[in-house]
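A sample copied in:

***
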Amino acid sequence: MTGRTVNWTRTRAVALFGGRTSGTRHPLVAAAMVLPLAIVLAVAFGGWEQVVTQASSVAGVMGR
């Protein structure tokens, strides 16, 4: 019975959103989707200093 429910849910989602997705997304597209929201949340909650600190730590790990 659960197999039918899952298939019906997928069919309905495909109908609502206009097609199947491949399941993979380019990393730059994912970053472009999440960065605006991350910036708004960082500014809204005063976490900008933590974002800068984390970015500098990541840059240090990457060797820059």
In short: The mean pLDDT is 77. Residues 6 and 12 are 10 Å apart (CA to CA). The first helix runs from residue 2 to 17.
